[in-house]
Write a structure and sequence with these properties.
Elements (H helix, E strand, L loop, with lengths): L8 E5 L4 H12 L3 E6 L2 H10 L10 E4 L5 H14 L4 E4 L14 H29 L2 E6 L12 H21 L4 E8 L5 H14 L3 H9 L10 H12 L10 E4 L9
Parallel strand pairs: 1-2, 1-4, 2-3, 4-5, 5-6, 6-7
Helix pairs in contact: 1-8, 3-4, 4-5, 6-7
Length: 263
């Protein structure tokens, strides 16, 4: 199985922690040069120094930028594409705050749309020429199982994630003839700071302990445990390899069997 990414360059968004961080480590371990992107300069600089290096041509870089700032994001991505064309894009960023859809302010939907879909569009447009020129491209969007089954209490996220899934499926059809695949990975309940924050928020709203709420969530997961970031990262990394060249336009749940939908 061809899993080697030597000579490839990956841009990993949301790389300072959680699934993004684990994905950067996994891709570097497969031989890719990795550029890290997130808001926290200190965390990115530290991680860039820790990523695996298996050959002399493998270089790791980082840029601190906010995914909400579309203009700044596009400027960084454009400069990067000129200096170091990337063949792999991992669209990953923190999820919107929880809460019902009907009580959310319109500005909450606007911000989430900018952070998730507009940011992804800016990055794709900046990196696409390099992918086409190299005859190789992998775009992986880290979304949520909510695109298959909306999750209670995540109204804004459910709405915007579905928009990203539709955008991704459209791109998959448009770019396939260029040797570029576009896929979605849908993490289930994964032990990250976002999950901890959601548990804490529900605990504050209900008066129940975070552990009690966690056990309630796990009751709906056949695996009876939360996922680890590294488990999600392994699926993301596979989709970036030559071995996954014929996997295109799919949404893969990594959720311990929690999602009941067949497609």
């Amino acid at each position: 199985m061809q899993l080697d990414l030597t000579g490839r360059h990956a841009l990993v968004c949301g790389a300072s922690q959680g699934i993004g961080r684990a994905t950067a480590i996994e891709l570097a371990g497969l031989g890719a040069s990795v550029t890290l992107l997130a808001r926290s300069a200190d965390a990115l600089a530290e991680l860039a120094g820790q990523l695996p290096r298996s050959h002399a041509e493998q270089e790791h870089r980082w840029h601190a930028v906010d995914m909400l700032d579309t203009g700044a994001l596009l400027a960084v991505a454009t400069d990067l594409a000129i200096a170091h064309p990337a063949q792999i894009l991992i669209n990953n960023t923190g999820g919107p705050p929880g809460g019902p859809a009907h009580t959310a302010e319109p500005t909450a939907f606007e911000a989430a749309f900018r952070q998730h879909l507009l940011a992804g569009q800016a990055l794709v447009q900046a990196l696409l020429p390099g992918m086409r020129a190299g005859g190789y491209g992998r775009i992986v969007n880290v979304i949520s199982t909510s695109v298959k089954e909306p999750i209670a209490g995540l109204g804004v996220s459910n709405t915007v994630r579905a928009a990203v899934a539709g955008w991704s499926k459209t791109l998959a059809s448009e770019l396939a003839t260029d040797g570029i695949t576009v896929n979605n990975v849908l993490p289930g309940y994964t032990r990250t700071s976002r999950l901890d924050g959601l548990l804490a928020a529900q605990s504050a709203n209900t008066g129940r302990s975070a552990d009690d709420i966690a056990q309630g969530l796990l009751a709906g997961v056949p695996a009876r445990r939360f996922g680890q970031p590294e488990e999600v990262a392994a699926v993301i990394a596979f989709l970036c390899t030559p071995a996954a060249a014929y996997v295109n336009g799919v949404s893969i749940a990594v959720d311990g069997g929690r999602t009941r939908a067949l497609s």
